[in-house]
């Protein structure tokens, strides 16, 4: 945890958690403890596949693996959350040999991709624990992959850079697990920096840390809404963006993605686009500009401007990109009425999942209480609220004090 003013949300101290994990292994053998954070995207939605910019932060909802090295080319891992032990052999990591999908595929997929990248693997027996809610859009899967990448790494081998490791884990999730995710989740979990968000350029996979103004907490509100952006809606948005690029590129030099289009270029070509495509393109072009403007406003401590940018992003996702939902809109509306809430918007692909809020220290509980009292009555859904801090990316943890 960083200097967040909030208590440990999992209700147990970090030292007690580490000790409990390690106690499950053979005490006579040396065990290592690795951690990897989940993430929340502050702004820059649906810009990743348009080769634009995103601004996620790694957060202190995390996955931990306590691992005891094994001489065998084999992994055996117990998920405390699921109460399930799974194993796999390095020799059987072929894509075709897999059976029904299981959570261990995220670990095996990371091993597969590491080996494919030429990295030596180390077998281990271990225990996995997590405080990241699964499937809520806070990237429990990427955190599991990044923690696995540390547990699997041969300690004497040179470690690739966080961005390279993120690309390897993404390849594992894409090709081995079969989930067509972008690189943001793994990137944030691998490269996060305490007190910072990461400005990631999704064209070249480079990043720079962008400080979050002091005195602000990040509060994540889960709408409890089961509807998520379906893959057909997602694919439709992607093909509408591609259609926009194709039409604009007929008249403009050097346009290969919406990342290359600015407001003036879009205005010049707007009448040649289908109306729905024009609206999708407008969202992406303006959202990319909002990411840059948010980094500038945060650096200047201009919280009013950050609030305006979050509100504009939410309205654009609702009205132009059409991926919000009544539940997400209600959650943002409730937050905006709470004194001390600086900025609020939907985060993630849409139609469900979470909102992200920047909140002045001391106002977090007021937001939590308002959400808990107003939201269920309004939507008939059970929300969850997490007060989180921006933390460092994945890595080994020092052994707990005896
Ligand atoms: P998210 O938004 O949380 O990343 P995903 O659907 O991408 O949602 O990934 C969730 C999957 O990751 C789970 O279904 C499970 O297979 C795996 N996973 C995450 N956390 C754990 C855990 N603690 N134990 C076992 N599997 C986990
Ligand atoms: Mg995921």
Notes on the protein architecture:
The chain has a 6-stranded mixed beta sheet with strand order 5-4-6-3-1-13, with helices on both faces. Strands 10-11-9-12 form a 4-stranded antiparallel beta sheet. A 3-stranded antiparallel beta sheet has the order 2-7-8, sandwiched between helices. It has helices at residues 14-22, 104-116, 140-152, 162-177, 184-191, 231-251, 263-269, 275-300, 303-319, 326-336, 364-379; strands at 32-41, 53-54, 56-70, 74-79, 84-89, 123-130, 196-201, 206-211, 216-222, 341-346, 354-360, 384-388, 395-396. The protein folds into 2 domains: 7-211, Ribosomal Protein S5, domain 2 (2-Layer Sandwich); 218-388, Alpha-Beta Plaits (2-Layer Sandwich), CATH 3.30.70. The protein has 402 residues and is of the alpha+beta class. The longest helix is centred in the last third of the chain and has 26 residues, at 275-300. Helix content is 39%, strand content 21%. Residues 1-12 have low confidence and may be disordered. Residues 79, 81-82, 103, 106, 128, 130, 134-141, 144 line the site of adenosine-5'-diphosphate (ADP).
Helices, strands, pairings?
Layout: H1 14-22, E1 32-41, E2 53-54, E3 56-70, E4 74-79, E5 84-89, H2 104-116, E6 123-130, H3 140-152, H4 162-177, H5 184-191, E7 196-201, E8 206-211, E9 216-222, H6 231-251, H7 263-269, H8 275-300, H9 303-319, H10 326-336, E10 341-346, E11 354-360, H11 364-379, E12 384-388, E13 395-396
Parallel strand pairs: 4-6
Antiparallel strand pairs: 1-3, 1-13, 2-7, 3-6, 4-5, 7-8, 9-11, 9-12, 10-11
């Amino acid at each position: 945890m960083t200097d967040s003013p909030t208590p440990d949300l999992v209700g147990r101290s970090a030292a007690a958690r580490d000790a409990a994990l390690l106690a499950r292994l053979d005490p006579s053998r040396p065990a290592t403890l690795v951690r990897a954070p989940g993430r929340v995207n502050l702004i820059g939605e649906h810009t990743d596949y348009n080769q634009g910019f995103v601004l996620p932060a790694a957060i202190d909802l995390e996955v931990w693996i306590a691992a005891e090295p094994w001489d065998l080319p084999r992994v055996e891992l117990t998920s405390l959350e699921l109460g399930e032990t799974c194993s796999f052999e390095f020799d059987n990591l072929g894509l075709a040999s897999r059976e029904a999908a299981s959570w261990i595929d995220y670990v095996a997929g990371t091993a597969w991709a590491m080996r494919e990248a030429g990295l030596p693997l180390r077998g281990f027996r271990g225990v996995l624990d997590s405080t990241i809610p699964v499937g809520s859009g806070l990237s429990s899967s990427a955190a599991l992959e990044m923690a696995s990448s540390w547990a699997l790494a041969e300690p004497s081998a040179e470690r690739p850079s966080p961005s390279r490791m993120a690309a390897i884990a993404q390849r594992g999730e894409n090709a081995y697990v079969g989930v067509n995710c972008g690189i943001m989740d793994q990137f944030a979990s691998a490269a996060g920096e305490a007190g910072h968000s990461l400005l990631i350029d999704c064209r070249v996979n480079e990043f720079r840390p962008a400080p979050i103004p002091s005195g602000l907490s990040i509060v994540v509100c889960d709408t409890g809404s089961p509807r998520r952006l379906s893959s057909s809606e997602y694919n439709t948005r992607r093909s509408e963006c591609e259609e926009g690029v194709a039409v604009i590129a007929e008249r403009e030099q050097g346009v290969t993605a919406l990342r290359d289009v600015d407001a003036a270029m879009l205005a010049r070509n707007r009448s040649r686009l289908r109306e729905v495509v024009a609206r999708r393109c407008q969202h992406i072009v303006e959202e990319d500009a909002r990411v840059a403007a948010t980094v500038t406003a945060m650096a200047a401590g201009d919280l009013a401007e950050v609030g305006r940018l979050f509100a504009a992003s939410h309205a654009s996702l609702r009205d132009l990109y059409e991926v919000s939902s009544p539940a997400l809109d209600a959650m943002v509306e409730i937050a905006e009425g709470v004194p001390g809430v600086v900025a609020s918007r939907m985060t993630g692909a849409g139609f469900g999942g979470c909102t992200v809020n920047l909140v002045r220290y001391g106002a977090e509980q007021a937001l939590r209480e308002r959400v808990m009292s107003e939201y269920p009555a309004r939507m008939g859904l059970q929300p969850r609220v997490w007060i989180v801090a921006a933390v460092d990316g994945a890595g080994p943890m020092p052994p707990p004090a005896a």
